[in-house]
Design a protein that fits this description.
single chain, 194 residues, alpha/beta, three-stranded mixed sheet, three-stranded antiparallel sheet, 29% helix, 25% strand
Length: 194
């Protein structure tokens, strides 16, 4: 039995998705930090994954915010990994994400990757209107991600890239000596009064 590095497996899968998927080819996997985040409870209800952009709107490092009469400057922290500045941190909630069905796991990965701005500037993809993260309908957003995931699977050349997604956590634990993955504290915006 071997140890399964879940974030390593996700890194490899995301790199392949970015290389083979129209609409996601702007993503540079070396500038993503893929992590696990523990969930307090099991089950499949709740958030499965989340993305933290490391820039404000339009890729800006800073943003001015007014609170009452005071103005504050908010600055994103800089994160480096292997000599590369990280522009996005993606968290997959453990074990909740891994207990989804195979297709739902893949759709969730596409969902998080699609949030990455086409300019790959550290900001998220912004849709017009109030719900700028998902557009006018989160349901339609997820349906579109399902179509992208299905197209990816049709062209998949290396089944091993997705094999680990076919199992839930109990099954993964019986197949592997240990499950490990990268953890990283949620980046905190630095706020300073002007």
């Amino acid at each position: 039995m071997s140890t399964l590095n879940l974030t390593g497996a996700l890194d490899r899968l995301i790199a392949d998705i970015a290389a083979r998927t129209e609409g996601l080819s702007h993503i540079l996997p070396s500038r993503l930090l893929v992590c696990l985040s523990p969930t307090r409870s099991g089950g499949i209800h709740g958030v499965y994954a989340k993305i933290h952009p490391m820039r404000f709107a339009d890729g800006s490092l800073t943003k001015q915010v007014r609170r009452g009469r005071k103005t504050y400057t908010c600055t994103m922290p800089q994160i480096n990994s292997h000599g590369e500045e990280i522009l996005y941190v993606i968290y997959f909630l453990f074990p909740r994400f891994f207990d989804l069905s195979f297709r739902e796991k893949l759709i969730t990965i596409f969902h998080e990757l699609y949030h990455i701005a086409p300019e790959f500037n550290g900001d998220i993809r912004r849709f017009p209107g109030r719900n700028y993260a998902h557009g006018s309908s989160t349901r339609k957003f997820n349906e579109a991600m399902g179509i992208m995931a299905d197209r990816y699977l049709e062209k998949l050349q290396d089944e091993e890239l997705v094999e680990f997604l076919r199992f839930d956590v109990p099954a993964l634990r019986t197949r592997h000596k240990a499950l490990v993955g990268r953890k990283f504290k949620t980046p905190r915006i630095i706020v300073a009064a002007n």
